[in-house]
Amino acid sequence: MNVRKVTSALAISAALLLGTTGCSLNHNIDSMQAYAPSDGSQIDIGNVKLRNFIYLSNGAGGKLIGSVVNNDANDITVQFEYTDFDTRTQTDPITVSAGETLGLGAGSDTEGLPVTISGLPGQKITIWVSINGATGQELVVPVLDGTLEQYAPLVEKLTAVVPSPAE
Q1: In 3D, which of 128, 153, 136, 133 has the Cα closest to residue 58?
Q2: Which residues in the chain belong to E strands, given as ranges?
Q3: Are strands 101-104 and 87-90 parallel, antiparallel or unpaired?
Q4: How much is the pLDDT for 84?
């Protein structure tokens, strides 16, 4: 009878141990999943990575801010296309050297791309990104304003440089 008690106790202990710790054996662990740890959006187009793109708006216009990472062996040109009050508009092509990262806006030496897109803070807008003239890929970008403390100084700069549509 002692053998049965010991065997039963071991079986119950093993079942409890597996029942309480075995969940992570077959569950996706959230901290192991790739994600964009920022407010912006990201996509990969071949060897080119677009990171942390946001549309920072002052209500009258704004700038597209983010980074373009060229992991290709060749220089590339990037062009953004968007709908501007029912008109499709393209930015001038931007060249990014092979193996380089180009920062647009926040924290970089390069200004963000000035664009005027109808979108209110909290909404998302769609832009199309074209690499070397190929068919563009869609990138859905959040619209932000100066409500978040880290963007307030950038929005103040926008007020001085982005004209309102009435001007």
Answers
A1: 153
A2: 41-45, 48-57, 62-70, 76-84, 87-90, 94-96, 101-104, 113-115, 124-131, 137-144
A3: unpaired
A4: 67
DSSP 8-state assignment for residue 25: G
pLDDT at 160: 52
Is-contact 40 55, C-beta < 8 A?
no
Q: Please report which helix (H) or strand (E) contains residue 159, including its range.
A: helix 152-161
Its pTM surpasses 0.90 = no
CA 147 to chain centre: 19
Per-position b or e across 4-23, b if 16+ CB within 10 A of its CB: eeeeeeeeeeeeeeeeeeee
Residues of the chain predicted below pLDDT 50: 161-167
β pairing state of 48-57 and 137-144: parallel
110 closest CA partner among 92, 129, 86, 89: 92
Nearest to 129 by CA among 62, 44, 72: 44
**What tokens appear for 111 in the block?**
């200004």
Could you tell me how far CA 11 lies from the centroid of its own chain? 49
- pLDDT tens profile 89-133: 888 899 999 999 999 887 766 778 888 787 788 889 899 999 998
Helix H segments across 1-70?
A: 2-21
